[in-house]
Every structure is written in structure tokens, then in C-alpha cells.
Amino acid sequence: MAGLFDLGGRVAVVTGGNGGIGLGMAQALAEAGAAVAIWGRDADKNQAAAGRLAAAGAAVEAFSCDVADPRAVQAAFAATLARFGRVDGVFANAGVGGGGRHSFLERDAAEWRRLLAINLDGVVTVFQCAARHMAERAAAGDAFGRLVATSSVASLLGAARNEHYGASKGALNALVRALAVELARYGITANAILPGWIESEMTAGLMSNEKFVANTLPRIPLRRYGRPADFGGIAVFLMSEASAYMTGQVTVIDGGYTIA
Fold first, then answer.
1. Any idea what DSSP says for residue 197?
2. Element holding 127 (H helix, E strand)
3. Is 165 noted as a catalytic residue in this protein?
4. Are 18 and 36 in contact (CB under 8 A)?
5. Are 25 and 258 in contact (CB under 8 A)?
6. Order of strands across the sheet with 89-92?
7. Beta partners for residue 194, in sequence order
8. Contact partners, residue 174, CB within 8 Å, separation at least 6
9. For a FRET experiment, which of 81, 86, 123, 187 has its CA 20 to 30 Å from that of 73?
10. What is the pLDDT of residue 205?
11. Which residues, in sequence order, are CB contacts of 217 under 8 Å at separation 6+?
């Protein structure tokens, strides 16, 4: 069984891999033997994350990339190929929160488009670059690919003042299902991970709010918020041979929040 989860020789890209859930996934992938390319906008955070993985003996490289910029994505992908020679899996994790500052009645088109440019369009661009590369490899007899999007339970539940965020994540669920069908012929699987309330920089403000904690924590059967390390196992599974027959799925990891 251990061999099913051995990622030796595989290369994974983790966008937004310099912190939070992305770093939790990147670290687990590296520990399982994969080479890891961390993509992020903050160069200092990128280097700190890469240093953390390298200190543990991982083959890792960090690349500055804003996924909302197609040219930056193409450049980062080319640089990753130049460094590692191939890409076997992409974890499209980079994203921004909705903030909850404005109601739907006040939301302007610019704010809507800014969020979707990162949370949805950025994933599409990253996946397209990766899928083209993976399809080319399949044509040469090397059929293997893993596309994994970080969605959210906000795609399942009503999130007031965050309809733009929920819409972006709901679109990712539909995207992976479509790609699962279209790209299966190339040995490529496509799946989404749906986190619940997770401790990270994005949620730090909320989790320091006593009213928020009082309203949400009792609804989580496991009685704690998620941590980045909670996403390491699913990342390794989805990257590995163990998940070869799993595609088009949206997997909720929320401590039971959505069923309570």
C-alpha cells in the first residue's frame, strides 16, 4: 500500500503554496517524495515557504506569479518546466476571500470581476497550461495528470455578502466535473477540495472575533477549526496512484460543518 502513495519522480505545482492550505499541501506532497513548485505573488513568502521545504530535504522551487495575469501564468509554467522537466499535478489553490463588506445590492461590477479574475479565471488559465502539457505527454505514451482546485463549502451554503466568492467556487465545482469528462482520455483526473472554516491568514480577522467564534465553532462536530496540515493527506491521495479511479469529485473537508 505504501507504494500507492509514493510520489517519487512526480512534480507538483501549488499556486498560493506559500501559506495556509497551499503550504500544508505543498509540505505533504514534498514529504511524499514529489518535487514541488510554489507559485505566489509575495516573493518573500515564496522564499520562506521554499526554504521550509528545502530544509526538510525536498526538491522545491518558488516562482512569483499572479494567476490573474495569463502571461505571468505562462511564464511561471515555462520556468517550472525548465527547472523540473515536467508537471504531473497542479493544485490551483491561489484565491482571495470575499470580505463580506458589501451587500449584493451594493456590489459593483469591478469588485465582482476582480475576485473572479483570481478565483475562477486564474484557475482556468493554470489548468489550461497544465492540461496542454499533460495531453502532449499522453500522446508520447506518458499518460498521467492531476488537476485539483481548492473550492469552498461556500459553493454549497448561502454566504451572505459573499455571493461573488460563492459563485467563483461553485464554478470551480462545475469546471472540474467538465474537465474530468473531457480530459480522461489523456489519463488526467480533475477534482476539487472544499474546505470549511480553516485557520489561515485569510480568516485570521474572523477567528479573532468572539461573536464569529461563538456562532461557528459549536456548529463544527469536531469542535475545532481546520488547519493547513489537515489538507496534506488529501493532496497526497489526489496526486498519487491511489486516486487513479477518482475524478470529477468535490470532496468536503470541514470537520462536519456542512452536515451539522
1. S
2. helix 122-139
3. yes
4. no
5. no
6. 60-64, 35-40, 11-15, 89-92, 145-150, 188-195, 250-253
7. 252
8. none
9. 187
10. 83
11. 223, 224, 225
Nine-digit cell at 138? 499522453
Residues sharing a CB contact under 8 Å with residue 140, sequence separation 6 or more, in sequence order: none
Cell representation of residue 149: 482546485
Domains of the chain: 2-253 (3.40.50.720)
pLDDT of residue 152: 97
212 by DSSP, 3-state: which?
Answer: helix
Among 165, 186, 225, 257, the one annotated catalytic = 165
Classify 82 in phi/psi space as left (phi over 0), alpha (psi -120 to 50) or beta. Answer: alpha
Residues in a beta bridge with 64? 40
Per-residue pLDDT at 242: 97
Question: Which residues contact residue 44 at a Cβ distance below 8 angstroms, ignoring those fewer than 6 apart?
Answer: none
Q: Tally the C-alpha atoms within 13 A of residue 191's C-alpha that lie toward its C-beta.
A: 22
Q: By the 8 A CB rule, do 106 and 39 touch? A: no
239, 88 Cβ separation under 8 angstroms: yes
The pTM of the full predicted model, rounded to 2 decimals, is 0.96
CB of 30 closer than 8 Å to CB of 8: no
CA quadruple 161, 165, 169, 171: dihedral, nearest 10: 90
pLDDT of residue 202: 81
Q: What is the pLDDT of residue 193?
A: 98
Paired strand residues for 12: 36, 89
pLDDT along the chain (260 residues), means of 10: 90 98 98 98 97 95 98 98 98 91 92 97 98 98 98 94 96 98 98 96 85 94 97 98 98 97
Nearest CA to 23 out of 56, 66, 55, 53 is that of: 53
